[in-house]
Write a structure and sequence with these properties.
251 residues; alpha/beta; 8 helices; elongated
Length: 251
């Protein structure tokens, strides 16, 4: 009996997830990845169980790699550390602006970016810059950037939301944020905020500004991956509904 059949025999879907990372997942299972995991478990007639781990460096090694769980709900398609299923959604970075400002920024070459206060998430504990930060830097737009923490300190609830709130409050003119985060935290502002997908940057041909997102399993779990893929395909419209409920900007 292969390991993947063993997983099914135990009738348990063991998911590795971050305990505090909305809109994706949290301990109360309020994220869209939690909803999709519940859908998978139901289709597999399996009990859903979680291994909670902050999604920082070493996440895959300490979860899938350590055999503590069997599937990660969101990895870039083709991510080399795992076996990824076919993607179940495709999103990108977005420009978030206040609708009543009529800024309609469509690309990083828009000259107005030189005059605006731009909010970005500082990511990576190694200080590695996000694609939007790189695109602005290549154009010499660095003075007017305001950095927001992705992780905040432990007392902060949903630190990722701050950059979106700042646009709504008028503290900054535009935020350039990863789509699912932007969509989720902009939702409560209804029509007051405008989200526009950021196109690829011709000046940075090798840097992706959008990603197809898939499920990740261990490289040895081929049969399990295929099983999950069949469910993703069968439940495609259900999954799209979940994503649109969470306001995920889709390409």
């Amino acid at each position: 009996m292969s390991h993947s059949q063993a997983v099914i025999a135990k009738q348990e879907l063991r998911v590795c997830a971050d305990p505090d990372n909305l809109p994706y997942s949290n301990r109360k299972q309020e994220g869209f990845e939690n909803k999709i995991a519940a859908l998978l478990a139901k289709e597999l007639h399996a009990k859903l169980s979680y291994t909670w781990q902050r999604q920082k460096n070493g996440f895959i090694r300490q979860t899938l790699g350590a055999n503590r769980c069997d599937v990660v709900m969101g990895v870039p398609y083709g991510y080399e550390r795992v076996l990824s299923t076919q993607p179940y959604y495709w999103s990108g970075y977005v420009f978030v602006t206040a609708r009543n400002r009529h800024l309609s920024i469509a690309s990083f070459d828009d000259p107005i970016l030189r005059q605006l206060k731009i909010g970005l998430h500082g990511i990576g504990n190694d200080g590695s810059n996000s694609p939007p930060a790189s695109a602005l830097a290549v154009r010499g737009i660095t003075e007017n950037i305001v950095g927001y923490s992705m992780w905040g300190d432990t007392t902060q609830k949903n630190p990722q939301a701050q950059v979106i709130d700042a646009v709504a409050k008028g503290d900054i003119d535009v935020a350039i944020v990863w789509g699912p985060i932007a969509g989720y935290y902009a939702k409560k502002y209804g029509n007051d905020l405008e989200l526009t997908l950021a196109p690829h940057d011709p000046k940075l041909p090798d840097m992706p500004f959008d990603y197809e997102i898939a499920l990740g399993v261990r490289k040895t779990d081929q049969a399990f991956a295929e099983k999950l893929e069949k469910i993703l395909e069968k439940q495609q419209s259900h999954i799209q509904n979940i994503l649109s409920t969470y306001n995920v900007p889709l390409i």
